[in-house]
Amino acid sequence: MNLPTVDDIRLAADRIAGAVIRTPTLRSRTLSEITGADVWLKFENLQFTAAYKERGALNKLLQLTDEERGRGVIAASAGNHAQAVAYHGRRLGIPVTIVMPTNTPIMKVSQTEEHGAHVILHGERFDDAYAYALELAERDGFVFVHPFDDPKIVAGAGTVGLELLDQVADLDCVVVPIGGGGLMSGVATAVKALRPEVEVIGVEAELYPSMKNCIDGTVTDVGGDTLAEGIAVKEPGRLTRAIIAERVDRIQLVAEKHIEHAVALLVGIEKTVVEGAGAAGLALILARPEQFRGKKVATVLCGGNIDTHLLANVLIRELVRCGRIARLRIFAQDRPGALAAITRTIWEAGVNIVEVRHNRIFTALPAKDTEIEVEVEARDAADIDALEKKLEGAGFHVERARLD
């Protein structure tokens, strides 16, 4: 198997120049202070389709023959790859067909159609859509554009690594999310060819350790609902696993709560929207600060396509985790004035009531007692801690709902 080289990546960089954004890589002063590392972020979420996938897709499309362009291309994707192929296909006048699972959010379907692609919904899982796309490619003569397991796709993705090395000097470490492995393969190829002393670390969601299983020989269950659906790949590529086995120093896993935390911090600190997969590298740095402390470390924010409702949930959950929003279950005697006494105590503590639920029936408490559930918001965690003590001091039993 011939693996892509740094020369292939350099040619890809020349090929796609001007049609893909050379995204900035910036030092995060606040994240550096939080982690104790010198943290640099490459903002691939600033691409037109909000993901690095444009690089590989365009590099592939530009190398098609006139005859292949005339036949058109097909891809299977429920996300960023679909939009990248559709967008650059339309720019180049190449007919594009995208096969998506039937449960793909309508927003992603419509965005892909807006880029000029013909979208076919097929199967409940990505594997079903992928198999059908291959079937259509064989039947109708389309050129299949793989999302990651193609040397031209890998070379295009590797341009991220070239830019990163050009933008940041004296790096100690590069942390890159892994799904199918295309981005990691390309970045690792560039980094190890030009600065072999730089440590290259891949990151997978804890629920989807598929590449780690392949490389490390571990046997861990793969599957589940993850915020990082962009790297939720059950079967990584054969080409990419060969590259990663040779050129990546290690693969580490990150838990869902750390991915959520990273997404929220990027909104709050950097004022940038990043999807779960795109925040996985930062999530690892935040989860293991002792590993990166004192090092100059860069990570790629590889995508920014996150559903707005999901993003809102993540941000609210972050407020809960940092103690600014809490749900308190307060147990009291069901008598006149009990609720007034509770609300007065909350007011005196300077805490705001968001919502109140009164439960007399569906509770294991005695019939003369009641359970009052109150959602409150405060300036910081200390205010809610103080409120709990005030309520307990006033004779109420209080329990706080926890996320972890």
TrEMBL record:
Its EC number is 4.3.1.19. Keywords: Lyase, Pyridoxal phosphate. It catalyses: L-serine = pyruvate + NH4(+). GO terms for molecular function: threonine deaminase activity. InterPro entries: ACT-like_dom_sf (IPR045865), ACT_dom (IPR002912), ACT_ThrD-II-like (IPR044561), Ser/Thr_Dehydratase (IPR050147), Thr_deHydtase_catblc (IPR005789), TrpB-like_PALP (IPR001926), TrpB-like_PALP_sf (IPR036052). Residues 327-404 form the ACT domain. Its cofactor is pyridoxal 5'-phosphate. PROSITE patterns: ACT. The keyword NAD does not apply. PANTHER family: L-THREONINE DEHYDRATASE CATABOLIC TDCB, THREONINE DEHYDRATASE, MITOCHONDRIAL-RELATED. Belongs to the serine/threonine dehydratase family. This is Threonine ammonia-lyase. It comes from Sphingomonas arvum.
